[in-house]
Amino acid sequence: MRTPENLKNLLYPLLSIALLFVILIGMKSAAYFINIMLISVILTLLGIPIMKRLNKAGLSDILSVTIIIIIYIVCILGFVFLIYESLYVFISRLPEYEYLLTERLSELLDILARFNISGDMVASVLKPDWNAISKMLLEVVAGGSMLAMDLFFILVITCFALLEVHKMPGRIEKVYGEGSGKVENVKVIISNIIKWLVVKTKTNVVLGASFGGMLYILGIDMAVFWGLMAIILSYIPYVGLIIVSIPAIFLAWLQLGVWGAVVVIVGICIINAVVENFVFSKFAADSFQIPPLIVIVTIILWSWILGPVGLFLSVPFTVIIIALLQGSPDTRWITTLLGFDDPGQVEEE
C-alpha cells in the first residue's frame, strides 16, 4: 500500500509534465506573437555589445539605439534588394536554364544507358516545372507586405527594449533588494547568451563568405545570394547548409556539368568541416558545445511549436533557456542531465 509520501513523490513529476505540455500547447497557439518577441529579443541581445561600445564613445542611449536600428534597417534593405535582384536574374535566365537542363539530362541519360539503367525516373525528378517555380517565387514576393509589417513591429520592440536595458539592474534590485546577487546572475546569463549569438554569427559569416566565394570563383549564378542564405540558414544546425546547398549544386550541374557539381559538393564538405572543427572551436568555449541529440530534439520541437521560424530560432531559444536554467541553483541539475557543464562566470566587457 502506497503511503501519502509516495503518492506525493509520484504526483509532483506527473503534474510537472502535464504543466509543461500545457505550456507548449499554449506557445503553439501564440506562435505568431512568440516569434516576433523572440526575434526582437535576439536583435536586442546582439545590439547590447554595440550599444556598450557607443556609450563608451560618449554617445547617449537614444543616439546609440538610433544607430543600431539604422544598421538593422540597412542590413534588412540590403537583404531584400539582394533577394529581388536574384529573383530577377533567375527569372530572366529561365530560357537559358531550360536549354541547359535539356543538354544535361541528355548527357546523364546517355551515361545511365551505358549501365543499362532506365533514366525515366531520373528525368522526371530533375526536370522541374519552371512555370510553377516562377509562380511560387512571385507569390513569395507578393507576401512581402505582411513581412514588412512584422519587421516594423520587431524593430519597434527592439528599439524600446534597448532603451530599457540600463534600467533593468535598478528594477531587479528594487524587487529582490540590494546585495541579493540577482543582478550579477542576470548579467552572467545575458553575457553567456550574447557570447553564443556573437560566436555563432561570426562562424556563419565565415562559412557563408567561403561558400559564396567558392561559387563566385566557379562562375555560378547568384553566388552572393547563396552565400548570404548560407549565413542565415546555418543558424539551423546540420540541416541549414544542406538546404542552401541543393539549389547551388543544381545550378552548378546546369552551368558546369557533372564535374562542376562534384567540385561544389567537395568544396561544401571541406568548408563545413573546416568551419565547424576549427573556426567555431576557435571562437567558442567548451560551454557552447550543445550535444547533437539536444540539437535535433529542439529543432523538431520548436519547428512544431513555432512553425518554419522555429527552425531558425530553435538553437538560440534553447541557448536562452539553458542559460536561464544554469543561472539558478534550483534548476542547474536539469542542464547537467542534458550534458551541459556549468559555464561559470563570464567577464563583462
Distance between the termini: 59 Å
Give the SSE order as H and E letters.
HHHHHHHHHHHHHHH
Classify the secondary structure makeup into a structural class. Answer: mainly alpha
Total beta strand runs = 0
Gyration radius over CA: 24 Å
Main sheet: strands, sense, barrel = none
- Percentage of residues in DSSP E strands: under 5%
Total DSSP helices: 15
Name the helicity range: over 70%
Low-pLDDT runs of 5+ residues are 342-349
Mean pLDDT: 77
- The gross shape turns out to be globular
Fold blueprint:
Elements: H1 4-29, H2 31-56, H3 61-92, H4 94-114, H5 120-126, H6 130-142, H7 144-164, H8 168-176, H9 182-218, H10 223-233, H11 240-256, H12 258-283, H13 292-306, H14 309-326, H15 332-338
Sum this structure up briefly.
With 349 residues, the protein is mainly alpha-helical.
Description:
The protein is mostly helical. It has a domain of 149 residues. 82% of the residues lie in helices and 0% in strands. Helix 2 packs across helix 14 and helix 3 runs antiparallel to helix 7. It starts with a helix and ends in an 11-residue tail after the last helix.
